[in-house]
User: What shape does this take?
Amino acid sequence: DNERSNFAMELHDGLAQELVLLNIYLDQIKGKCAETPEVDRAKNILSDAMKQTRRLTYNVSPPLLNEGFFQGLTVLFERFNDVNDINVSFKIEDETKSSEDLMNDEVSYNSFRIIQEFLNNSIKHSEADEISCIVSSKNDFCSIIIKDNGKGFDQSSSKSIGMGIKNMKKRAKLFQIGLEIESIANVGTTLYLKIPKSFGIDF
Assistant: This one.
């Protein structure tokens, strides 16, 4: 986790700042020339590079996790509630918060990404108007159940299983996160997560 944070910091403080400086130089060059189609093209390419750098920095170390896994989830759901025409409810049972210190950083990070992907899929594809999430604590793991009331999808169809779901399952398998997706046509889709408090648990 420290390596990921350091890499994100180097991207932001190193490469990203160099790109900003280059953008300033291009503006200065453009100001000294009458017509500069080449500079305009260069600025467009640079703008894309800056966007990709910001996206990579965010993907490597999501700022929402700086204050911890559960606080990151809280803010994530609040943001989805604010920017989408969907009623989003989020609840963490009180006894669950004390288990955060037991959770491995890599497990927390990948669990966050799984949840983020599920929410994005619900927003983009499900046509749901409600999403709910309940986080609770069990003996050796945290349980997270997220439901939407959308149109669902056919889990037996390869066309319905996109890269997002494949990546969710890959992350879960790699870090021993229990993952189950249940989808019923015209009822909705539910994500069940069992996040180990100690990395290495067999489910």
Q: What stands out?
A: Residues 2-32 form the longest helix (31 residues). The longest strand covers residues 188-196. The chain has a mean pLDDT of 81. The chain has five helices and five strands.
